[in-house]
Amino acid sequence: MKKTLTTLTSTSLFLFSLIACNAETVTNTTKEIISDYKNKIPTIKLRDDFSSKNPAWKVFEGNWQFKNSEVVQNSVDDYFPVILRINQQFSNLDISVNFTPVSGRVDASGGIIFRAKDQNNYYIVRANALEDNFRLYTFINGSRSQIASATVTPPSINKAHQIRVITKGNHIQAYLNNELKIDYHDNTFSNGYVGLWTKADSVTIFDDLKVDSLD
Ligand SMILES: [Ca+2]
Question: How many of the other CB atoms lie within 10 Å of CB of 103?
């Protein structure tokens, strides 16, 4: 009898985990975790309009140029261009940036890095003007894994779009152009630096980075 109960419990847990997994899909009734922070005063408010190059920015890969009050990544030879802002670490945060995909035949991406331990270990949410998907990946020791994906209208080339990510513990929500598209739970990284990301031959402009620390 005890064994049967144990088996039933395991089956229930398995079914529950399947249901929980399905609950990661964004629906009209998905609760936005930003509502949990409505009375929260951010402990740090970082704003960067890229009118000058803050010395906290460190380039790890790619050619990132600060000009015209924007930052543009225009190397077409690096596979994963990464720039991190290495003076502050964030755990729970509300981060957004505007990005304009300019060109790319293999890829035309723009992404936000968050909770980065270093240039090889971080979360990234990105959109790609060549693909109809919006994705959350982990990079672990430089190895990329897709952990969540949503179908979207591909962002137009030469137009500005906004990516926004909000975290609460292991709960991650990501928006493209103010629409919640990704709702996911993951425990890989708990805090770290923020940064910007592109891929392959993407030439991408970024502007108006905003980060509120919500710890
Ligand atoms: Ca600017």
Answer: 14
